[in-house]
Design goal:
The complex is a heterotrimer of chains A (about 300), B (about 350) and C (about 400). Chain A is α/β, with parallel strands linked by helices and about 300 residues long. Helix content of chain A is about 35%, strand content about 30%. Chain A contains eleven helices and 14 strands. In chain A, the strands form three sheets. A six-stranded mixed β-sheet of chain A has the order 6-7-8-3-9-10, sandwiched between helices. A four-stranded antiparallel β-sheet of chain A has the order 2-1-4-5, covered by helices on one side. In chain A, strands 12-13-11-14 form a four-stranded antiparallel β-sheet, with no helix packed on it. With about 350 residues, chain B is α/β, with parallel strands linked by helices. Chain B folds into two domains: about 240 residues, no CATH class; about 90 residues, 3-Layer(aba) Sandwich (D-Maltodextrin-Binding Protein, domain 2), CATH 3.40.190.10. Helices cover about 65% and strands about 10% of the residues of chain B. In chain B, strand 3 and strand 4 form a beta hairpin. Chain C has about 400 residues and is of the alpha/beta class. Chain C has two domains: about 240 residues, no CATH class; about 140 residues, abc type-2 transporter like fold (3-Layer(aba) Sandwich). Chain C has 14 helices and five strands. In chain C, strands 2-1-3-4 form a four-stranded mixed β-sheet, with helices on both faces. Chain C starts with a helix and ends in a 7-residue tail after the last helix. The chains are: A alpha/beta (about 300), B alpha/beta (about 350), C alpha/beta (about 400). Chains in contact: A-C, B-C. At the B-C interface, helix 2, helix 4, strand 4, helix 5 and strand 5 of B face helix 2, helix 4, helix 5, strand 4 and helix 6 of C.
Chain lengths: ~300, ~350, ~400
């Protein structure tokens, strides 16, 4: 294992009968980096993560973690990792402080509970029963439980699903902060912006296999030197659409949204305007942008990340 | 299919799949009478007891034997020594033992049989009294004629317990229909989803009530027949009164369930409170043991419980106790009245959104 | 180690704070204890039980200087006097007024008896006084008649009738003594002998307190254990533990310690209630009693795991617990004597660990001698523990199906 690689996964497989949830996945995670598994629901992200968290057993494959080659995650490995589960409950009749003290007691060298309360901004709620907490507060408590042992490697499974934009930004800054402090983070998400904003490297997963990997920039650049033009038309069935073929080589129509990919922006724009004037089709909500991971996924699979 | 029919079908399916509610309404009464039928069938019935006798002298032997024989239909076992009879009492081979040595009459009881010794003591006292009279060659001056004017000639306590348990299952069904089922629907926001449709809330309540009523009928009838077939209980069921009471009782219990649902803030607590209350009532309503056995203040409490009156009314409907016709109809009408008064309130509860 | 203890503490804290659990494992057993002790503990004692009695005297013609019918009435009236303090009298009498039609009154009394408003109706028949007086002269074939109307189906009526028969037997002796035909001094007074370890009658509360404590442990294990495991598994509370170094065996250890602590709490509270509020005198301070209580707590803990392992859904598990609750509790001799049961019910009694624990505990407390041998008393619960451990270790799932 190379220097600076904290985790390597080799040919990981998990099948449920006919279903291949995880079908030969391999990747490496560098020390102090943020590694993201990106993919739609059902891609195998959570299954993979749960195998690495030690609550699911792989059918086959190797895991190299903290310099050791293991078949499954042991308790001593768990001493050094922190896990934020995608879903999970806490005892409703315990208090916040009691939950953190409880989790702290599972580790050999936990942080002081007061420090964790401060870190996740739950000091005021320290004496509150879990059943009285809001969704965001519960997520912060879960984060606190995940960080109680000051872990080297942190798993965040869909950490911002269901959170409002403000809470999402808070989580992003938490991730950035953790990375600054030298932690290694493995995160799963189906939000492309999240993957782009946070990750040092991304693996795109679909149907249990990796279909692309690299830094966000590498992935979008592999897409080509193209620019994306998007606009909306009011009546998608208009015969006028036929005329688009002459001006644009690659385009997609999805309901009322038209997406055009081009390598020569200037020429395409001129032809689009001409077509619009000719056919009397207004170009609503016209956007010109760089390709993103959503586009990458779409071009690889023909489907969207988010249904 | 009309809204009512589809609601009825849906409610039926839901109830069939709700194992707790199904259990409390269907199985609980059955299991209860199966277990208790054998345990309680003989309570207070000393004719099934066994008495040992050891007479070590010929003095007054005949008189004692005559007194013993006259005491009733229990089984008499003669013993040959004091040690043997004491052993037999301790080993519970006999229920109590009588020993006469010409001067002293001793009665041996097992100190641990606290619930039964009272009845045995009564028997022993009767024998002693009779023996003393016979010894002095005297016949009783008084002749006491005990006449049973009860409704069913071979009725025992268990035949009263069974309708009491049926009353409990009616109470549970009605309570859990509202403080259980409807409150759960409210908590899970299912009610909200239904309200935004053109469905009329009244129909939902009718469907809930209708299905519960059907289940209660089926379960009480099954339990009744098991009691009759398995334990030979004899009832004279007035089907009119029985039906009337099941309907009014279930409705009234639903009214009580509504009261709980309105008073309790969290809908999820309502079913726990309803269950706890019905269990407490089960003990205090004179179903396990007669109300007369309770101290004064508990007796007063018992009268205030709906279950007590439900049990009495149902006992009357199956013919094991007597009650004035007026009282029966008054009880039924009160329960129905509770339901009718609270029904519109319940409909409003169903419509009101859940607020924290 | 401290992780285990904190799991134990969490288990206890949750049980106490969750009002539903608190009710069923503490308040309800306390309620049953108090109720049973109040009712059965005082059965037959004066001031605790009271019967409504109708009393009618049809004997209007008095033959001699003594009105014997009046003696009977007086006896009953004295029993209807309030006792010391505020104790209720044994009978509350209902008698016709001077101007009431006696026959009509009898009819209404009999109706009241049928409707359960009277325990019994006593009628002194016409010619009573004459018959008594006549018995003084010669051996008369006409004995003085009384009728006691009652309803067999009503236990209270049965009991009242027995008491009335005793009262009348006393009047009978009184009459015979006055007539010089009976010598009370010569009567044999029976000696009551209580066979048991103390030589005295066991107070009811001493008999029932150990049973209620066992019932508390039983309910705790039957409902509390599957409830905690199944609901926490469903809510994925347990899953949060498994991603930490906390292993299943350590979790189990903590859970079991917590459970035993709750049993200890039940014991202390019920014992204090029984001892200081209800006057129980039974002492649990013997090693064998302690051992049996511990064995009981562990047996029901294991049994709870058994249910949690066999349940396919959480709802099904709790329904199973509810179904098992009553038969196991009552077919164990805890509250009702179990003699004379048909074969298939006796099978349940013999398979039921609670039967052995109840007998064993009462025997170790000196309340009764057990029909089971010590081998059986220890062996059957231990067998259940072993069975539960085996099945749970194979079948108990610690995480939801995926």
């Amino acid at each position: 294992m190379g220097e600076g690689t904290l985790l390597r996964v080799i040919d990981l497989k998990k099948h449920y009968g006919e279903t291949k949830a995880v079908d030969g996945i391999a990747f490496s995670v560098a020390n102090a980096s943020v590694f993201t598994l990106l993919g739609p629901n059902g891609a195998g992200k959570t299954t993979t993560l749960e195998i690495l968290e030690g609550i699911r057993e792989a059918d086959s494959g190797t895991i190299e973690i903290f310099g050791e080659r293991v078949g499954r995650i042991t308790r001593s490995i768990k001493q050094r990792t922190g896990v934020l589960l995608q879903d999970g409950g806490f005892e409703p009749y315990l208090k916040v402080r009691e939950i953190l003290t409880l989790f702290a007691s599972f580790f050999d060298r936990p942080l002081p509970v007061q420090e964790i309360l401060k870190h996740v901004a739950l000091e005021e709620k320290a004496g509150a029963l879990v059943r009285t907490l809001s969704g965001g507060q519960l997520q912060r408590l879960a984060l606190g439980a995940a960080l109680v042992n000051d872990p080297e490697l942190i798993f965040l499974d869909e950490p911002t699903t269901g959170l409002d934009p403000q809470a999402r930004r808070n989580m992003w800054s938490v991730v950035a902060d953790l990375q600054d402090r030298g932690k290694t983070i493995i995160l799963t998400t189906h939000y492309m912006e999240e993957a782009e904003a946070l990750s040092d490297s991304v693996c795109i997963l679909d149907h249990g296999t990796i279909i692309a990997e690299g830094t966000p920039r590498e992935l979008t650049q592999a897409f080509g030197e193209e620019t994306i033009v998007e606009f909306r038309i009011d009546d998608p069935s208009r015969k006028a659409l036929g005329g688009l073929q002459t001006c644009c080589k690659q385009y997609r129509v999805d309901g009322g949204a038209v997406t055009v990919e081009t390598e020569d922006l200037l020429t395409t724009m001129e032809e689009l305007f001409a077509w619009s004037r000719r056919e009397q089709v207004p170009l609503d909500s016209l956007i010109v942008r760089q390709p993103n991971l959503e586009d990458v996924f779409l071009s690889l699979t023909g489907r969207r990340l988010r249904e | 299919m009309s809204a009512l029919k589809s609601l009825l079908l849906a409610e039926l399916r839901i109830l069939m799949r709700d194992r707790m509610a199904l259990f409390l309404t269907l199985l609980f009464p059955l299991v209860f009478i199966l277990v208790f039928g054998f345990l309680m069938g003989d309570i207070g019935d000393v004719s099934r007891s066994t008495m040992g006798v050891f007479i070590s002298t010929d003095l007054d032997r005949e008189e004692l034997e005559a007194a013993v024989a006259a005491a009733g239909t229990m089984e008499i076992v003669p013993f040959g020594s004091l040690a043997e009879i004491k052993e037999a009492v301790a080993a519970r081979e006999i229920d109590f033992g009588l020993v006469w040595d010409g001067k002293q009459l001793d009665v041996f009881y097992d100190a641990a049989r606290v619930q039964e010794n009272f009845a045995f003591q009564q028997v022993a006292t009767g024998i002693t009294t009779d023996f003393n009279l016979r010894r002095q060659g005297v016949e009783a001056a008084l002749s006491v004629d005990v006449i049973d004017i009860g409704a069913t000639s071979s009725a025992n306590w268990f035949s009263l317990v069974l309708p009491g348990i049926l009353a409990f299952s009616v109470l549970s069904a009605g309570l859990s229909a509202i403080s259980g089922h409807v409150t759960a629907m409210k908590e899970r926001k299912i009610l909200d989803r239904l309200i935004v449709t053109p469905m009329r809330p009244v129909l939902l309540l009718v469907a809930v009530a209708g299905v519960r009523l059907g289940i209660v009928f089926v379960s009480t009838l099954i339990t009744l027949f098991v009691g009759i077939l398995l334990f030979g209980l004899r009832y004279e069921i007035s089907w009119l009164r029985y039906t009337v009471f099941i309907v009014c009782g279930t409705a009234g219990a639903m009214g009580l369930g509504t009261t709980i649902a309105l008073l309790v803030r969290r809908p999820s607590s309502a079913s726990n409170i309803a269950h706890a209350l019905s269990m407490l009532m089960l003990f205090l309503a004179g179903i396990y043991f007669p109300v007369e056995f309770m101290p004064g203040f508990l007796r007063a409490l018992s009268v205030a419980m709906p279950l007590t009156h439900m049990a009495n009314a149902l006992r009357y409907a199956v013919g094991v106790v007597e009650m004035s016709e007026a009282e029966f109809w008054a009880i039924s009408a009160s329960f129905l009245g509770i339901a009718l008064v609270l029904f519109p309130v319940l409909a409003r509860y169903v419509i009101r959104p859940l607020r924290h | 180690m401290t992780g285990i203890l904190r799991i134990a503490l969490a288990h206890v804290a949750t049980a106490i704070r969750e009002r539903v659990t608190l009710f069923w494992f503490l308040i309800f057993p306390a309620f049953v204890l108090v109720l049973l002790a109040l009712i059965f503990g005082n059965l037959g004692e004066e001031g605790e039980i009271s019967f409504e009695l109708g009393l009618i005297n049809r004997d209007t013609v008095s033959a001699g200087p003594i009105d014997f019918a009046e003696i009977v009435e007086e006896t009953f009236r004295s029993l209807a006097e309030p006792g010391e303090g505020s104790a209720e009298p044994l009978f509350t009498l209902h008698q016709p007024n001077d101007d009431t039609d006696v026959e009509a009154f009898l009819d209404s009394e009999l109706t009241a008896l049928r409707r359960g408003r009277r325990a019994a109706v006593v009628v002194i028949q016409a010619g009573f006084g004459n018959a008594v007086f006549g018995s003084y002269g010669q051996a008369s074939s006409d004995s003085a008649k009384l009728s006691v109307y009652m309803t067999t189906s009503n236990v209270a009526s049965q009991m009242a009738t027995e008491i009335i028969e005793q009262v009348l037997a006393g009047v009978d002796r009184e009459i015979l003594t006055r007539g010089g035909r009976y010598d009370a001094a010569q009567a044999i007074e029976p000696e009551t002998v209580w066979l048991g370890t103390t030589g005295e009658e066991t107070p009811y509360v001493d008999f029932v307190l150990p049973g209620i404590i066992l019932m508390g442990f039983f309910v705790n294990g039957l409902f509390g254990v599957p409830g905690a495991i199944l609901f926490n598994r469903d809510r994925k509370v347990l899953r949060r533990y498994w991603v930490t170094p906390l292993s299943v065996p350590r979790f189990l250890a903590g859970f079991s310690i917590g459970h035993l602590a709750l049993c200890g709490l039940q014991f202390v509270l019920l014992y204090l209630l029984g001892r200081y509020a209800l006057g129980a005198s039974v002492s649990f301070a013997s090693p064998s009693a302690f051992l049996l209580l511990l064995l009981a707590a562990v047996t029901f803990l294991a049994f709870g795991f058994l249910i949690a392992s066999l349940a396919r859904t959480t709802q099904g598990g709790m329904a199973a617990a509810n179904i098992l609750n009553m038969p196991m509790m009552f077919l164990s001799g805890l509250f009702f004597p179990i003699a004379g049961l048909p074969f298939f019910l006796r099978l349940i009694v013999y398979a039921n660990p609670l039967s052995y624990l109840a007998q064993g505990l009462r025997a170790s407390l000196g309340i009764e001698t057990s029909v089971f041998t010590p081998t059986q008393i220890l062996g059957v619960p231990l067998a259940w523990i072993a069975l539960s451990v085996v099945i749970a270790s194979i079948r108990l799932r610690w995480d939801v199906e995926r």
